[in-house]
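2 proteins. here.
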Amino acid sequence: MKKLTLIRHAKSSWQDAKPADIDRPLNKRGRDDASMMAQRLAADGFSPGCTVTSSARRALQTAEAFAAAIDFPVRELLVYGAGSDQLLGRIRGLDNGLEWVAMVGHNPAITDLVRRLSGEPVDNIPTCGVAQLDFDIDRWRQVGEAGRAFFLLRRQRGCSFKTCGETALSQTGHAHEPRT
């Protein structure tokens, strides 16, 4: 079993137009959201072996907020601006000794990858949105061949959390009742 958690970076600052896009930091809401989401997931047992993140400042700050709350390493960087094909290639090249990996990135790539791997018609992963995909596979290179479960947890206004979708997929990709 391999677990992949895809996280869209938290809300970034547009206050100062001077920094290049890659250098934009999180704004206050983004820092707060990342911390709250990480704490919520930690309470639910979220414990990936490592995080792979975009090299953009806002993605690194999001990954660092999760790592601080959950105590896991941020150990690898993705190329800034990677598309869903590049992300999937990186996932398929992961060390098979890792059972659970988190990946922090950007839209549209994160939403595209969730849609592609889950088979669900996901319109948008919001900032600081988290998609959990579980695969009944032994090797990361098999990701995308057979999905098992899709779970999306999204931060809502007012510090409440909501499960936005949960679907288990058969090997043929057809939805059936979620596992309990």
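next one coming up
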Amino acid sequence: MEATDPAPGGNTAAGQLDRPLRYRGLRFPRDAAVLQRDVARQMEASVWQSAYTDAAFALARSDDRAVVLGAGTGHIVAILAGKLGLRHVWLVEPDGVRRAYVARLADANGLARLDLLAPDDIATVAPTLLFADLTAGIPPLVLPDTLRALALMAPAAPQPGDIPFAAIDAAGLGYLPEHSREQALVFARPNMA
């Protein structure tokens, strides 16, 4: 058998797809439905959505209760729950494939403080930190008054109305240019960032 022939289970040379991807000290299951090849390469090089990831490191505190809207690759959820050790992290993700992937990700990294949440239940958990991937087609944001900070992953070419500035302003959150770059937009209450 040549090295380019699929190995048992459909994987190629040396079980490349069986080996978990490493990103910021966490193990990510390889799943082509969630981690496309170019995304996996960027994650392995620690450049995948680096501005959004840096916002997680800059904003999170161990006593935060965080809600993540839109799982994406699961990297923000894993960093908040695993790497930064937040008290609790809830995920709102409408896509069943991504929810199942995050469950495997949580199991692979022992992320016991992670739960799924329905969009209508966000206010009931009184989050202090909210991450929202606006590229993932999430429902309109309702920002609870318990928020200390908000990080948004904006579309590459936002259209009018894509970024809920009126809701952000009504929640008393101000723009933090020192933590915002590329598509990552960060907001916080004054003197609470």
